Amino acid sequence: MTWNPFKKESTSEQAQQPIEERTAEPTTSKGRPTPTRKQAEAENLRPLVPKDRKAETKAAKKRTRERENEQYDAMRTGDLAHMPKSERLPWRIYIRDYVDARFNVGEFFIPVAFVILILSVLVSVKWPSLSIPMLLLMYIYLVAVIADVVFMWHGLKKKLLDKFGEAAVRRGSRSGSYAWSRSIQLRRWRLPKPRHPKRGNWPK
Q1: pLDDT by residue (tens digit) across 107-154?
Q2: What value does the mean pLDDT take over residues 2-27?
Q3: Burial class (CB in 10 A: 0-12, 13-18, 19+), 72
């Protein structure tokens, strides 16, 4: 057969071309080759261990600090939606409202105990005999605080059981310690902030 230079290559001749030439990657409208699936997956992969651990640790601490600041501001302003999850539990909200509604004997314990200790030290220099009665007065006040906390928890526990069941008073819930620790704080220092400005607003 005579070879004709003007005749197009036959199909068999095209099949003999290298595969790389026949399967050239299509180009995008921007003139760059379209990335293959393997290349796209490689770009999306993230190393399990960051290259710069120090920078990653610093960034994680910054995110944690920002979240804690946001939660603190929410408790200070009474924004329930942005408080920590533990503070949004329904029985904890009930405990706070119950404690804030009553007059707690231990509410002034910390400042009173501090004043009595300072006075006992001062008077012991000139009147040593007065230091013992003052310390005795502080212990009497402490006993009164404990009795008031026990009385408060006795009534609150019944209400929690009736309203929320065993989950609200089980050991892991720490409802008892949560209630008494709030009851011995000054009202203006409590966090989360009381929802009502005055006492007497009992939860339903």
Answers
A1: 999 899 899 888 888 888 888 888 888 889 889 999 999 999 999 999
A2: 46
A3: middle
The domain locations on the chain are 57-87, 89-106+140-204
- Collect all residues with Cβ–Cβ distance below 8 Å to 28 and sequence separation of at least 6: 34
Contacts 24+ apart (CB under 8 A), 74-79: 74/192, 75/191, 75/192, 75/193, 76/191, 76/192, 76/193, 77/193, 78/192, 78/193, 78/195
- Could you tell me which of 143, 146, 116 has the C-alpha nearest to residue 131? 116
Per the omega criterion (within 30 degrees of 0), is the bond before 192 cis? yes
Measure the CA–CA gap between 107 and 88, rounded to whole angstroms.
23
- Tell me how far CA of residue 140 lies from CA of 86, 109, 132, in angstroms: 35, 11, 12
Model-level pTM?
Answer: 0.70
Q: Confidence class of residue 28 from pLDDT cuts 50, 70 and 90?
A: very low
AA letter at 64 = T
Q: Please identify which residue in the block is written with the tokens 């400005």.
A: 197
- Give me the residue label for tokens 């760059």: 32
Question: 33 φ, ψ to 5°?
Answer: -70, 140
Taken in order 192, 105, 102, 149, the sign of the CA dihedral is: positive
Tokens of 93: 């909200």
